[in-house]
Automatic annotation (TrEMBL):
Phylogenetic classification of the source organism: Eukaryota, Fungi, Dikarya, Ascomycota, Pezizomycotina
Stored SUPFAM superfamilies: alpha/beta-Hydrolases
Listed Gene3D superfamilies: alpha/beta hydrolase (3.40.50.1820)
Pfam families on file: LIP
Name the record gives this protein: Uncharacterized protein
InterPro entries: AB_hydrolase_fold, Lipase_secreted
Length: 452
């Protein structure tokens, strides 16, 4: 498996949605099997989009008052009605309410960008005079196209793995889509750009406070999985860097839960060991990198088959991408993997991903399945070791879950990390220093090796 992440292209209800006749006929890169898998995945995904034809939803269009606006400004706010939830966001658990909003974030050069996010609130109001504890949820790979924004997904990517779980526990969940998923930005969505996603997180809170500040605790934590696990980690690092005054207006940052973090790690290609890469995640990254570094050319990097599949890839989101790419090895996908050792990749890692190690602003809990074949435990431990060696005064814990893969390893850690988060809100900080804990299961009869 090459670098990074995805997860849970799980259990979405099959749909009878009829696809419009598509420009997809006679693609030599995609035989009949492949077309069948593609169309089935796309239909299932489309049925999960809150607005199935994304172009019909004016919400994500950048408003004119974006001009001149500053990071943290609010651009648009929409409380979804009970009727809209009943028709367009049918998977939201009972009693929860949803708002979505557009706001201003910034790119790596601190130029303003429009971004979208959602807020999920529990039924019960905060205790008298009190506020909800505030949790920023950072989503894992959803795809690359604009319509893949979690706020446009009936399950809000990734349902009980994140937003539903935390709102059910009484948190106000604020969740950025990340700039370019949902909104339209130059160069398109910057997949895996952790340094930028960290700004999206902080500014989503700054903007949300302008409307529902009376409901949100000043204190906040960030928790996420996969691409979002990496983002939670990067957020914790970025908030400790110099010149982050505007981001720090997000509130009092208490800590981060980094689940199965998709830290970009060229070593993953070796770990895939010639086998299928499992998902198109490195292709999503490459599609963005050629926008940032025009001297890199897709035609020189991807095989003919992979290039042919690109015509189909961004019609859908991750599940569609998996249907198209999952059975391809590195050699079937890439003419050359030299881009992974290129100066452009090194530049991207530093400036866009924000690869560390860097000091941390607050405690961090890393949750990782030992049998993860998408973001390998060995890679995660390597980064954990780097942080511990460079910043031994940090408070970092790594919680390892035996026999489980990318999604289930994180999910199985929920009781452990939700207790960890609750203690932060009680003002009880974990000790400084690094520690590693391996979960001791009550038995080993659970399904081993599960990845999704
Ligand atoms: C998997 O790869 C083979 C070629 O090796 C192809 O014929 C087949 O259609 C692929 N399956 C899917 C679902 O794309
Ligand atoms: C909700 O679903 C309807 C029917 O598919 C669609 O026309 C509409 O654009 C959707 N979005 C919103 C935000 O109502
Ligand atoms: C942009 O307009 C919206 C809707 O009127 C408003 O809520 C928001 O505060 C405005 N933002 C800026 C930065 O002017
Ligand atoms: C991390 O550090 C521990 C303790 O020093 C060591 O045993 C382990 O091999 C290291 N892991 C990696 C992946 O570097």
């Amino acid at each position: 498996m090459l670098l990074l992440l995805p997860f849970l292209w799980a259990s979405q209800a099959a749909s009878a949605a009829v696809l419009a006749p598509s420009p997809n006929a006679a693609n030599p890169a995609c035989d009949a099997n492949c077309m069948e898998a593609f169309e089935a995945a796309l239909a299932t995904e489309r049925a999960m989009w809150a607005t199935p034809n994304f172009a019909d939803d004016p919400f994500y269009t950048t408003p004119t008052n974006f001009t001149g606006a500053k990071p943290g400004d609010l651009l648009r706010w929409q409380d979804l009605t009970a009727e809209q939830l009943a028709t367009n966001w049918t998977k939201i658990p009972g009693g929860m309410s949803l708002s979505r909003f557009l706001y201003v974030t910034e790119d790596v050069d601190r130029q303003p960008l429009p971004a979208s996010a959602f807020v999920l609130l529990p039924l019960a109001p905060p205790k008298d005079g009190d506020k909800y504890n505030t949790l920023a949820w950072t989503h894992g790979t959803a795809g690359r196209a604009r319509q893949c924004a979690p706020s446009n997904n009936q399950q809000l990517y990734y349902e009980w793995l994140g937003p539903f779980f935390h709102a059910a526990q009484g948190y106000a969940v604020v969740a950025p889509d990340y700039a370019g998923q949902g909104t339209e930005i130059r160069a398109g969505f910057h997949y895996e750009a952790g340094y930028m996603h960290a700004a999206d997180v902080a500014y989503s809170l700054v903007a949300a406070r302008k409307v529902i500040g009376h409901l949100l605790s000043k204190e906040w934590v960030v928790a996420g999985h996969s691409e979002g696990g990496m983002t939670a980690w990067r957020t914790n690092e970025r908030l400790a860097m110099p010149d982050q005054k505007e981001l720090l207006k997000a509130g009092k940052f208490l800590g981060a839960v980094a689940g199965s973090p998709a830290l970009p790690h060229p070593r993953s290609i070796e770990l895939a060991n010639g086998g299928p890469l499992g998902a198109p995640v490195s292709v999503y990254l490459l599609q963005n990198m050629v926008q940032i570094y025009p001297e890199l050319k897709l035609e020189e990097i991807l095989t003919e088959r992979a290039l042919g599949l690109l015509r189909l890839l961004d019609q859908g989101c991750l599940d569609t991408g998996v249907a198209l790419f999952a059975n391809m090895t590195a050699a079937e996908t890439y003419k050359s993997t030299a881009w992974l050792t290129s100066p452009q990749f090194a530049d991207w890692q530093t400036r866009y991903n924000g690869a560390g190690p860097h000091a941390l602003a607050a405690p961090m809990l890393v949750v990782q399945g030992i049998a993860d074949s998408l973001t390998y435990a060995a890679n995660c431990e390597w980064d954990f070791n780097q942080t511990c060696a460079a910043f031994p005064e940090s408070s970092v814990e790594m919680y390892l879950v035996p026999e489980l893969g990318h999604g289930p390893g994180f999910q199985a850690g929920q009781p452990y990390f939700s207790a960890w988060i609750a203690r932060l809100f009680e003002g009880k900080n974990p000790d400084s220093g690094c520690k590693k804990v391996t979960a001791k299961p009550v038995n080993f009869r659970y399904q081993h090796g599960r990845t999704g």
